[in-house]
Amino acid sequence: MKRRSFITFAAALLLLSACAKTETLPTEEGTSSSAAEEAVSSAAVLGDTEAPPTEEDLAAEEQIIDIDATTGAFSPSSVSVNRGDQVTLRITSLEGTHGFAVTDLGIDVAVPEGETVEITLPTDTAGSFEFSDSISTETPKGTITIAE
């Protein structure tokens, strides 16, 4: 029984020491790196390991732009984004019901007083696009610029 315990202990010790040992491999630049670093680097190149996106990565990927609609005005009245950006417009009607329309981009939504409507802005086409209130008779206007 003691011999079996000793063999199990020796096998566990051998396994642990093998895991802790790192082998140094030469690299092209003349420096060296461990075998573990090489494996991680190779796996990353092959797409085997991918770190999950951070909050900063997600924020860089998606922009949220708040626009307030009041009688006779949108604020801000000018919005600039880049082509290919993921953009969500959050339109809030502060007084009265308003429409938010960007005819050239196929957008036309009603925004009831006190509510917020989210719109995904299509950014696949660069250019300057006018937006307006499709409900109000005072028809406030603004511009969305999608840069190349």
Annotated CATH topology of the largest domain = Immunoglobulin-like
Helix coverage percent = 25-40%
DSSP E strands, number? 11
CATH class term of the largest domain: Mainly Beta
Q: How many helices? A: 3
Tell me what the structure shows:
There is one protein chain. With 148 residues, this protein is α+β, with helices and mostly antiparallel strands. The chain has 2 domains: 2-46, no CATH class; 55-147, Sandwich (Immunoglobulin-like). The protein is 26% helix and 41% strand. The protein has helices at 2-20, 35-46, 55-61; strands spanning 24-26, 32-34, 62-70, 73-75, 78-82, 86-93, 98-102, 107-111, 116-121, 127-132, 141-147. A 4-stranded mixed beta sheet has the order 4-3-6-9. A 3-stranded mixed beta sheet has the order 5-11-10, with no helix packed on it. It has a two-stranded antiparallel ribbon with strand order 1-2. The longest helix has 19 residues, at 2-20.
Entry summary:
By secondary structure, this protein is of the alpha+beta class. It has two domains: 2-46, no CATH class; 55-147, Cupredoxins -  blue copper proteins (Immunoglobulin-like), CATH 2.60.40.420. The chain is 26% helix and 41% strand.
Any descriptors?
alpha+beta; three-stranded mixed β-sheet; 3 helices; elongated; four-stranded mixed β-sheet; single chain; 148 residues; 11 strands; Immunoglobulin-like
Question: Strands, helices and their partners?
Answer:
Layout: H1 2-20, E1 24-26, E2 32-34, H2 35-46, H3 55-61, E3 62-70, E4 73-75, E5 78-82, E6 86-93, E7 98-102, E8 107-111, E9 116-121, E10 127-132, E11 141-147
Parallel strand pairs: 3-6, 5-11
Antiparallel strand pairs: 1-2, 3-4, 6-9, 7-8, 10-11
